[in-house]
Amino acid sequence: MQYDPIKRVLGDVFNKTPFLRRVFFNLLDLLLLRTWHVHKELRQWAAKRRGQEHCILDAGAGFGQYTYHLSGMSPKWNILAVDVKEEQVSDNNQFMRALGRQNVQFKIADLVHFRQPDSYDLILSVDVMEHILEDVEVFENFHASLRKGGMLVISTPSDQGGSDVHGDDETSFIEEHVRDGYNINEIQEKLRSAGFSKIDARYSYGKPGQISWRLSMKYPMLMLNTSKLFFIVLPFYYLLTFPFSLVLNWMDVNNHHKSGTGLIVKAWK
């Protein structure tokens, strides 16, 4: 399934005004399980840092929802958000200027080549690495760009059914992925080879999360990929499924999973 065309349609709808953009981000925060997991990690990192000056890199910012969230946590944090898509970078800069958030800048950059030595206290990479073939080069750039003691946070599909692939004869649900998912040991070894000294990896999207993902993401995206007329049906669909997704998301974030279709990986320089 082509995911990017649907993202562009959603972007066209919600980019019309800053108010609609904020509504869109709030909806993503509620529906997307990965957002629940990432926000949990960001809250822990920010617990004793809100009043301090820090430099943050959002590596592969997309719509900019995580940069938006981070920029609202502390005005003292300087955030650079990079992406390869020029139209998204432009839209994101206009949105942040409309909000008056001067501590944020979006730039066009390819993570395979982007490196700013000893510049960041936190690097965030959410659902990016599954799109990049040259992952080791990117990890090396992340390590070089972090300051000593800085932390990298990665959210990415695992090889335990990530991208909804459960066997060798299946292909990724999302065609833009260059890999179906990481083995939890593989990604840790690649990060060590890039120079990271301390790594903590855990599974996300356990059994509750997998059901939630199908309800809140897979089935709606399949409908929209079939026909844009399903945009009319979508609000009624979410009215029925939303309460179940909320409970399932809470269960997934607050439980330890022996296996899962997603990975949350933290690494320190």
TrEMBL record:
Residues 56-158 form the Methyltransferase domain. Keywords: Membrane, Methyltransferase, Transferase, Transmembrane, Transmembrane helix. It comes from the Bacteria. It holds the Pfam family Methyltransf_31. CDD domains: AdoMet_MTases. The keyword Transcription does not apply. The chain crosses the membrane at residues 229-251. The keyword Methyltransferase applies. GO terms for biological process: methylation. One of its GO terms (molecular function) is methyltransferase activity. Coiled coil: none annotated. InterPro entries: Methyltranfer_dom (IPR025714), SAM-dependent_MTases_sf (IPR029063). PANTHER family: TRANS-ACONITATE 2-METHYLTRANSFERASE-RELATED. This is Class I SAM-dependent methyltransferase.
